Amino acid sequence: MIIEEVEKLLNDYTRWLKDKTILKQVGKDWVEITTPHLDRHNDCLQIYARKEGNGFVLTDDGYIITDLVNSGCPLESPKRQELLKTTLAGFGVQIDRDQLVVHATPDNFSLKKHNIIQAMLAVNDLFFLASPYVASLFVEDVTNWLELSDIRYTPNVKFTGKSGYDHMFNFVIPKSRKQPERIVQALSNPKKDAAEALVFKWLDTRETRAADSQLFAFLNDSNVSVSHSVIDALKNYALEPVLWSQREQAKERLAA
After folding, report:
1. Whole-model pTM?
2. What share of the chain is helix, strand, coil (3-state, %, to 5)?
3. Are residues 59 and 155 in the same domain?
4. Do 7 and 122 belong together in one domain?
5. What tens digit of pLDDT does each residue of 235-244 get?
6. How many angstroms separate the most distant Cα atoms in the chain?
7. Which residues form the DUF1828 domain (predicted)?
8. Which domain holds residue 211?
9. Residues 6 or more apart whose Cβ sits within 8 Å of residue 79
10. Residue 56 bridge partners (DSSP)
11. What is the pLDDT of residues 63-117, one digit of tens each?
């Protein structure tokens, strides 16, 4: 893919973010920011900003954690708490009484806004299937499979993209004599919006990695089938979609 086409895609994405973002004054101190990013209910994610000294505080007002708990996904277990804190730490996001919070300056406001939105999406996706009907988290399943398959990896790696935004990936498998660097992302809810967000992360990040780096997207098809349009969209941008039910087909390439 030529660089001009990638540049246009990134510019189109940035323009879409700006055009679809809506601001609303809430009370005296807060501004509600409605973004075009969708949660698992297909509702637009919202964050709230308030002036604090010479900077700003941004919060989700407790929406993500409260929604998960109300949907039957308790987060009290030490393992889930550890996973939650590790995920948030990767984006520089704190948790305060169930609220996701970041502090920003005028200079890094856009970056911090990006980080808290990405953290909301990541936490939402991590626990999407963690309900009374599902025994484990999908990312845990992928972790266990990598370890049982003797595939070495580094978890929760953050890369800075060409845009200057940070992007978190679940696993990175280092380069070997036989294979290039392989980045692995687990999508527990592999719908169109999740695929588009992953494509942007990869396009923004790819130029900062080795030219032959590859990204494998593990798609959870345990309970529902994955749309062919999602698979085709990932392939069109040089990602490697791997259905969870067919994971053994990728084992040799990841283990080498």
Report:
1. 0.60
2. 40, 25, 35
3. no
4. yes
5. 988 899 999 9
6. 60
7. 35-123
8. 138-255
9. 140
10. 51, 104
11. 999 988 887 777 777 877 888 888 898 889 999 989 999 999 999 998 899 999 9
